[in-house]
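> run fold NB-ARC domain-containing protein
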Amino acid sequence: MSQSYPSQAATTMCSRGTVKTTGLNIWVSGGHNHNGPEVDVVAVQGLGAHPYYTWVGRQTPVEEVKPTHRHRLNYFRRREKNAQADGLPHVAQTASGAEEVMWLRDLLPDLIPDARIMTYSYESDWRRADVKTSLRKCGEQLLNVLHQNRSTEKEGRRPLVFIGHSLGGLIIKTALVLADHEAHAVGTEKESFRVDFSLQGIPVVKKFVARNAETTRLTQALLPTSTDQMRRKVFIVHGLGGIGKTQLSVEFTRKYQGSYSAVFWIDGSSKERLRRSIADLASRLPQHQLSEGSRNYSQNGSANADEVVEDVLKWLSQTSNDQWLLIFDNVDREFSVPSRDPEAFDVKEYFPTADQGSILITSRLASLWQLGTDIKLEPVNALQGQSILENSLGRSVEELVNLLQGLPLAINQAGSYLRNTNTSVHEYIELYDQTWERLMRMQHRSMLREDADRSILTTWTLSFNSLRSQSEDAANLLMLWAFLHNQDLWYELLRPALDLEIADKMPSWFARCAGDKLDFKECIGLLLEYSFIDAKLESSSFSMHTVLHHWCFHAFEEDKATMSWLAVVIVASAVPSMTVLHYSLIQRRLLPHCDQVYLMLQRHSQEAFKNREYLLSLSGACHKLGNLYSDQGKMKEAEDMFLRALAGYEKAWGPEHTSTLGTVNNLGLLYSDQGKIKEAEDMYLRALAGYEKAWGPEHTSTLGTVNNLGLLYKDQGKIKEAEDMYLRALAGYEKAWGPEHTSTLDTVNNLGLLYKDQGKIKEAEDIFLRALAGREKAWGPEHTSTLGTVNNLGILYSDQGKMKEAEDMFLRALAGYEKAWGPEHTSTLNIVNNLGNLYSDQGKMKEAEDMYLRALAGKEKAWGPEHTSTLDTVNNLGILYEDQGKMKEAEDMYLRALAGREKAWGPEHTSTLETVNNLGLLYKDQGKMKEAKDMYLRALAGYEKAWGPEHTSTLDTVNNLGLLYKDQGKIKEAEDMYLRALAGYEKAWGPEHTSTLHTVNNLGLLYSDQGKIKEAEDMYLRALAGYEKAWGPEHTSTLDTVNNLGLLYSDQGKMKEAEDMFLRVLAGKEKAWGPKHTSTLHTVNNLGILYKDQGKMKEAEDMYLRALAGYEKAWGPEHTSTLGTINNLGLLYKDQGKIKEAEDMYLRALAGREKAWGPEHKQALDTRYNLGRLYKARSMFGNAVQLFELVVQGYTKLLGPEHGETLEALNQLENCEVD
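> ok
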């Protein structure tokens, strides 16, 4: 008995808003009695007609219609229902109030209740020049859409009524003539060749999840049409096993079987099964159209099978028998001449000879696309995958669908296994990662018998065996791939391994594949042919599905040790040195493969290192992979790799072998980067002792470790020990290599950095210039090593305030690196970052931000967003935004840097603590004193633990705590912090070092605030003398102390001396920074304060207005420095009696400070206090009291109830209340 399946096409109703201008529009579905519609009505519009308004008339308004006829009452009820469904008003009316009536939808159903009512539209606007159609074409298109919407046997027998409007009548006539002449599917069929549809041989598909795009491709290519029925149509669905090729074909066959006179499913999995499938069809063919012997073949097998196959193919080739569909399923065996597989066949030999009918082929062989139109089936999307899982499991789990990456077979079988065994999804995912093979075997055993040959374990075996019979090399490459990452394989990944000393120990197949790109491409071509892999568009890279990747790893036990060894060596040999162009991008591309072999080594390390033949090469490979991880900022993985390398070398060579010591030295470098100072020192000392014993104290390898110890001691603040190491290394290199050798110059350069940090500026400059001259002679002026020294000179000049010289050095280094490495190389980006620092110091905020953002974008691309070098620039952006008063942006940058550094280095690493310290500075500037103190104390505790209480980084935080306590009015605590910092700096750097002088200057500020004028002046003069000696009289740090002396003299009433100081500062900063630099403007502002105190109101106002204009241009109108000058202008106008102007200034300053800092910040409270005093002077006591109350509360919370400023504000409040 034939079966019919409901059409899906009649489920979506059309509306006025969704009507299509071409094709079939369904207005009424019919079938209210649940048996489906009894008749189809199709209306065809005329020439130039509208697809909707052709069938619309005008009805008088609702209130004027008399319900005298039942169908009119039904009409209005239905109109309201349809309008609601369409999202339209209840009554569609014209401007005059008349109602639109679409009579096909609104009136006809009352006359024909169980009719499916449709309209057919076509391009008929004859006024358009681009319309090219004909009656025949319109008739054919009408037949096609009816064919698709009347595809089942039941639909084909349903009566069909046409309504034609104008030219529509001629289109209907043309369609009927074509149907009559060509036996198309509008109820007229060539019954003599019809074979009832049968599910015999068709695989069971319980619940199919729609793949609409792919199904549409099939219908467009395979459904019969009047114009090409005499042409054979061949369509190939190919792709990875388990991707859903058969399921898609089954669904297409069952849905559209009514469109064909006969549908035959043929098993193409082997030649024998193919022949048997075709021969078995004979019994289903109409009587008297085939010999009785052939028809009875399946019952008694008496006839020759080849003859029966030939008879069936002849029947399919008979004239007028052109409406059949053949499906060749699972044509997966590669056919070749001579054939390596006796069950392989050329599918073309089994095509009927006549040029008619439709053929659908499913295959894993991509080469079959040459037979016709094709589609490569891809994994399903997330929604489709969830639907598949819901069908098999009863619920959807996104995590499981993502794990199986859209492979329908894997998703379906996982869902069935979960349901059958009551396994949780979390448990399944754990088992999948840890015991994949055992899980798949259990899953295989739990399957129904008819599905067992299509399980994950078995589905790819046939294709792999066929591949291996064709090419052992390609099969081995596929197995090797299981030990690498599945998403990115390219030829250049394999090739470097053949340059190793152990290349002769590598398998011969690998030597062929990696040694010749054509051989590699041949292997890749076969893997593509069998749909094992995919080619990535517009690249030479290839990928493999993750489930197949797991299968490849577990399916074969042979050569696993060789494959795992080979994978580690391949990835390690591809790691580039830092001299390779774009090395960081290559490293990032290698990182997934590195992670893959890292995971493999974690799980199978004993087996990997057990074979002594592989031991040394694996140790060397682990060493290189450790370097890659270290460069990428993945310190835990780097340490693991170095320790594996170390263990391997110790086992192979012993603990004192020089190769062993090389890894020991690198572990020292790693621990140093991690801030594990004790461990780093232990490694360096072990390496040093070993090298001295093996090579002697003056060997260059020994000196390399000596140099590294110098670097470590420098970072620890052990300046004397660092200098001793550098000088020893320098003397040794000069003796071994000569004074101009590049290794000698490297140590010279390091000495320069040490002297720079010590404040020995002259010595540092001399050393850098020696290194520069030597490198220019050895390498040339554009070599990257030369440019490294140029960069260091730039940093030195920047610290000296020689901004022009610094910029020249940085720009030279930048141009050189861009030429050598390219604009995106990480060394180039480091110079870009340094230029950002320079521009920030110069107050060129726009230029600084541009540099930082360029460096950030480049580092994110090269290293990734979480790499420590990326985070360095993020931290610098935070500093810049804080200087600009962009507190929210600054905090975001600091918090991102902090989170990244905590993840990369840990919460106690010194780089992490640097950002903690910066957050403390930010919170202090925001007036968040509690949060600032917490940050400083965390940083201090961390530095003391990492570096010790006397390290200079520890002392920096001690100094910052002093600043915080000073702002809080905790004078004793502030003085203690400053004195501790001063004593530490004097011990570490000496009394004249600039860091020592910074604390001396801060003590001067503290003593000035305490009214200890003599002590303050002594501190300032000491700092000034030191700065003039270290930096010169015009350095900006020198000028900052001159400025502080000016403030001190001003407070003492020494106005002439104060003015002299300020004018000296102003002249110096204008020369160093320019007249519009913000540091220059600070001095302009201070001069304004001085002139105001001297009663020089005009001069004071001029200074303030100059400072204000400059700040607004540099920082913007809402920056806190801008607001400080606005507040000062308010004070000036108040003293001048310009009360309105003063109030305006105070209110503007208050609004800005509250927005920038919050209402409880000290500066906001100061402005509120000034405004309160203004209102009090104007006898506006109510306003003044409100302000003073807020100020007292704020000062009490911020400074404490006994602080002088709190008591003064309280006094003002009490006076107002008395008044």
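Residues 1-11, 61-92, 184-189, 448-452 have pLDDT under 50 and may be disordered.
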